[in-house]
Amino acid sequence: MATGTVSAPFNGVQSRDHQRICFSKVPEFLRASELPRVKFHRRKVLVIKNSSNTGSETVELEPASAGSPLLVPRQKYCESIYKTTRRKTSTVMVGNVALGSEHPIRIQTMTTTDTKDVTATVEQVMRIADQGADIVRITVQGKKEADACFEIKNSLVQKNYNIPLVADIHFAPPIALRVAECFEKIRVNPGNFADRRAQFEKLEYTEDDYQKELEHIEKVFTPLVEKCKKYGRAIRIGTNHGSLSDRIMSYYGDSPRGMVESAFEYARICRKLDFHNFVFSMKASNPVIMVQAYRLLVAEMNVLGWDYPLHLGVTEAGEGEDGRMKSAIGIGTLLMDGLGDTIRVSLTEPPEEEIDPCRRLANLGMKAAELQKGVTPFEEKNRRYFDFQRRTGQLPVQKEGEEVDYRGVLHRDGSVLMSVTLDQLKAPELLYRSLAAKLIVGMPFKDLATVDSILLRELPAQHDKDARLALQRLTDISMGVIVPLSEQLTKPLPNAMVLVTLKELSSGASKLLPEGTRLVVSIRGDEPSDELDILKTTDATMILHDLPYTEVNVSRVHAARRIFEYLTENSLNFPVIHHIQFPRDTHRDDLVIGAGANAGALLVDGLGDGILLEAEDQDFEFLRNTSFNLLQGCRMRNTKTEYVSCPSCGRTLFDLQEISAQIREKTSHLPGVSIAIMGCIVNGPGEMADADFGYVGGAPGKIDLYVGKTVVKRAIAMEHATDALIELIKEHGRWVDPPAEE
Q: H helices within 512-619, ranges in order?
């Protein structure tokens, strides 16, 4: 039996064919069941009409994925599917800073000092403000920290720093009331503001039980709303995937739906009290979950007619390029759809270091929206907005008579392609190592994180035997070698795959190649459909989606979505590689953020089979690592240990950056293993939902170790905790010794 949730204005519910629909009601929402299905674009959807108000829109629900019992509104989650248009929102004032669609995307971070250390906190806030942040958040655990907040605010004002301050509150409604008198904004976590810490128990609720819990939340939360209304403060209703309450998880599951409903419980109280100066956030350490939650949130707000701004962030993103990539995937994906009004890039680094990548992401989103980057309007019928359902291209199949094995030129979990130069062929062993191949007596062999195929824009001369032998050794290990048509016609390389354009296909130039030659087709994504039709009669091994960076008004994301729509509608199952070229002098952070936002926005929707990054003045190893990081961040190909690492704050019970580096040094060789490194457990063990093992500050100088969400060892002295973590990994059969140096 299908079930769904729709807004309470739809309180007289009937189906399109007037069949009876059963429903039960909670405040502002109806849960409908026995919904009739109708055909819509070859899929069955569920239609609910508001029979009490004939002027309202029809709400159409459909399964979140094939066979899923979760129904989601068909209402749009963004302003446009074919261009970046910023979502229209109300304006929320945080002190003197305005948030919303009529204002720039605001950037913010969070202090890492002990809040009771007023001098250190003030100095850090000043450094953050000097770097250009618009808003700063400070953790406020108890009464001593709340008292310090008054001193912090007064000291900053005396020094002419008027940057708005946000109090981060968990488990402490009285503290929130106190600090609302001096800070401009209060962040509450719906999972633990009025609820107890989750015990991950499956609870059964009657409608009366559930209603009583909602009444308890209203009783606890109402005083804060009234105080914020009195003082002109703002509130962020900040859901965290890792800290949903047992009640929410029992009713809606540990899911994006649960995240949205958790936030809406608090939003309804605000609205009931006629308080609208609030924003939402839906954070998760998994960028895919985070994107789904924000989309579902906006879709639900559209159903209800709400227009509150969004605070975007990937929590516990980590450090360095890993952290920047995760944030770029999650935040960048939403910015490309015009969602987001303030952002934070959470890194396990000093908070001042978050501002620059945060600004680069905000600028990317603002520029895309200002230019209205997009493509010609098209109808989108097949992309799944609310869940990860990968479109897997047909991997190469070996054909009779082929001299080399082409089955390894792409990887089933996501492929990495690299552009190689003639100069690199002059030192074959160095090239093999740079492709992350293993060497045995100078001969290359593919490994877990070896590049799958290479693009060689210029072939070596026919008489250059050494260079051609190096290429032969790559094709012998099933590494694809892709060369342009013109090069292959003039200096043919045995067993090469040939890169052709649509024009070369339609003109017949590709027919000059020997029969059976493997073709790789390069397309832009904005070509007219009649030009794309040549693909219907082409036997392509893969497609490279390559939109030149000089095309400032065309959106790579929307062009690719259009291509995937075309391929699906025409039952063309070619693998598609996202080919992104960057101009010279591109900053490393801009490259990581650009790749994460432009390719990640597609991969989180399951659209794409790999990545090819080109930047001729960038380090080869950096490009390769960035490519693999992108695939892993999108939950595709796992080639190294995954870390869920919090960015540190005033609650942190150890030097997070130092310990994180220490753990990474000893465990980074464990692909398939995920380790959470958490400064404290404020958000509950749900923070470890995405991790196999957890290293968590339990008390000053003491560490608790987790397996999944369960604590298995407590109060380990910090100097022994890393070794204890390794022993725990060994006990569970997940340890392998580091590879010996070649």
A: 529-532, 556-569, 588-598, 600-603
pLDDT of residue 390: 87
Pairwise CA distance, residues 441 & 439, whole Å: 6
Distance of CA 263 to the CA centre of its chain: 20
Name the residue with tokens 């464990």: 670
Residue in this structure with the two tokens 């595709």, named with its chain if needed: 636
Backbone angles phi, psi at 457, to 5 degrees: -70, -20
Show the tokens assigned to 216. Answer: 């308890």
Distances (CA, A) of 367 to 85, 338, 526, 604: 11, 11, 20, 22
Asked if pLDDT for residue 38 goes beyond 90, the answer is no
How far from each other are the two terminal CA atoms of the chain, in whole angstroms?
59
> What is the DSSP secondary structure assignment for residue 238, as one 8-state letter?
E
H/E stretch holding 673 reads none
Q: How far is 293 from 304, CA to CA, in rounded Å?
A: 17
- 3-state SS class at 506: helix
| 598 backbone dihedrals φ, ψ, rounded to 5° | -85, -40
The listed range with the strongest mean pLDDT (6-20, 51-65, 206-220, 348-362) is 348-362
* Helix (H), strand (E), coil (C) string for 250-312: HHHCCCHHHHHHHHHHHHHHHHHCCCCCEEEEEECCCHHHHHHHHHHHHHHHHHHCCCCCEEE
pLDDT for residue 437 is more than 60: yes
99 vs 507: CA distance, rounded Å:
53
Contacts of 521 (CB under 8 A, 6+ apart): 499, 500, 501, 502, 505, 535, 538, 540, 542, 543, 544, 574
| Residues ≥6 apart with Cβ < 8 Å to 608 | 414, 545, 560, 576, 577, 578, 599, 602
Instruction: Kindly tell me the burial class for residue 214, based on how many C-beta atoms sit within 10 Å of its own C-beta (0-12, 13-18, 19 or more).
Output: middle
Element (H, E) at 411: none
* Higher-scoring residue by pLDDT: 741, 506: 506
If one counts every other C-beta atom within 10 angstroms of the C-beta of residue 481, the result is 21
Other CB atoms within 10 Å distance of the CB of residue 465: 11
Cα gap 63→658, rounded to integer Å: 45
Q: Strand pairing partners for 691?
A: none
Query: Residue 638 corresponds to which tokens in the numbers above?
Result: 């796992």
- Region 523-540: mean pLDDT is 96
Report the b/e string of 106-122 with b at 16+ CB within 10 A: bbbbbbbbbbbebeebb
Pair 169, 176: CB distance under 8 Å = yes
With a pLDDT cut of 90, the percent of the chain lying above it is 68
Among the residue ranges 127-141, 199-213, 308-322, 526-540, the one predicted with the least confidence is 199-213
pLDDT of residue 197: 57
By C-alpha distance, which of 610, 596, 448 is closest to 520? 610
Among 601, 613, 552, smallest CA distance to 577 is for 613
Q: Are 178 and 144 contacting, i.e. CB atoms less than 8 angstroms apart?
A: no
Checking if the pLDDT of 168 tops 90, the result is: yes
Considering only CA atoms, which of 8, 602, 36 is closest in space to residue 300? 8
18: region left, alpha or beta (phi > 0 left; psi from -120 to 50 alpha): left
Phi and psi at residue 715, to the nearest 5°: 55, 45
pLDDT number for residue 4 = 46
* Nearest by Cα to 323 from 724, 559, 646, 599: 646
Sequence-ordered list of residues with C-beta below 8 angstroms from that of 162, at least 6 positions apart, any chain: 95, 96, 156
